[in-house]
Design a protein that fits this description.
By secondary structure, the chain is α+β, with helices and mostly antiparallel strands. The protein is built from nine helices and 17 strands. The longest helix is centred in the last third of the chain and has 17 residues, at 301-317. The radius of gyration is 22 Å and the shape is elongated. It binds zinc ion. Zinc ion (ZN) binds next to loops.
Length: 326
């Protein structure tokens, strides 16, 4: 689910979400571990000078944590160029990472954002961010620390996500697989809405992977070899645009990789590949009962009749790419 301005107002009026944990320290204790500037901004609600940090123009993949308690707050995927002079994000990494407070200082009505774990002042959130959230988290760079991460995320769809998710979970270098929706127009879609075929969304998976262990190219060729990419809007008995074969790219390099992999696989097939290649916009995680469906419901009819045979072929085909412990 992505947060919108109405959610922010709800938090202010009805209380902030419960954090995963709390860190409480006295002013004296914070002073000992923070620099003077970090203390002034995070514990005394200071504001750094605009354009004073290189973090504004930093867009390489990674995560941003609270400088005080090191809780991860933002992902570089939600960072955008706002030209305001402060690092800007459209979403926190988790709904409960940030707390929201009414701030009427300086004769303005603003919404202050703090770290929900340790109450560090971070900045403010405004309702003039880019779609689909429309939010702009305007954050002091001094409040954040960048965590370098090798992890990348790839999003693609090839029919029912129960199947595709089950396969990709088993690959070496894959850290996490989540089922969800992408490629359509409805914000925060439900499974029922996507099933109607009217949202434009496809059932997809978001694969978090380590490129030095498995490449984007590998992921795409495995994807194209484990579903039928030559049929429009259909996989097995599932029919509808939500089951279309689709690959999302996040930059030009991924776009050319997708074109190249499709050409390579095309050489092996008689029928024409109809997989759509689309610019990535947003991934909406599906409802909890869809996550890890195969492992949670191994006795289910769909799992035994549809996923099991696919998985067997898959494990045979990609023997040398599987995790050891599965
Ligand atoms: Zn914190």
């Amino acid at each position: 689910m992505i947060l919108k301005w109405l959610d922010v107002l709800k938090f202010i009026n009805q209380g902030n979400p419960e954090p995963d944990q709390r860190v409480n320290k006295s002013e004296q204790e914070w002073k000992q571990i923070l620099t003077e500037e970090q203390f002034y901004i995070t514990r005394k609600k200071g504001t750094e000078r605009a354009h004073s940090s290189e973090m504004c123009n930093l867009f390489e993949p990674g995560k941003y944590a609270c400088v005080c308690c090191h809780t991860v707050l933002f992902d570089s995927e939600e960072k955008f160029q706002s030209s305001t002079g402060w690092p800007s994000f459209t979403q926190p990494i988790k709904v409960n990472a940030i707390a929201y407070h009414k701030d009427v200082s300086f004769g303005m009505y603003r919404v202050e954002v703090t770290c929900n774990t340790c109450d560090a002042h971070l900045g403010h959130v405004f309702q003039d961010g880019p779609p689909p959230s429309g939010l702009r988290y305007c954050i002091n760079a001094v409040s954040l620390e960048k965590i370098k991460s090798e992890e990348r995320k790839a999003v693609f769809g090839g029919g029912c996500f129960w199947c595709t998710e089950a396969l990709f979970h088993q690959l070496k270098g894959v850290v996490k697989v989540e089922s969800g929706y992408s490629g359509g127009t409805t914000v925060n879609p439900t499974y029922r809405e996507v099933s109607s075929g009217k949202t434009g969304h496809a059932e997809v998976i978001e694969v978090t992977y380590i490129p030095s262990e498995i490449s984007y190219e590998d992921l795409l060729s495995i994807h194209l070899s484990t579903h039928n990419p030559t049929i429009f809007n259909k996989q097995g008995a599932d029919r509808g645009t939500q089951y279309r074969s689709i690959i999302f790219y996040k930059n030009e390099e991924e776009n050319s990789t997708a074109i190249k992999v499709i050409e390579e696989i095309q050489n092996l097939l008689d029928e024409k590949i109809v997989t759509e290649i689309a610019a990535y916009k947003q991934f909406y995680k599906a409802e909890e009962y869809h996550q890890n469906y195969y492992n949670k419901n191994p006795e289910g009819g769909y799992c035994q009749n549809v996923i099991d045979p696919k998985l067997k072929n898959f494990r045979e085909l990609y023997k040398n790419k599987l995790k050891q412990n599965i």
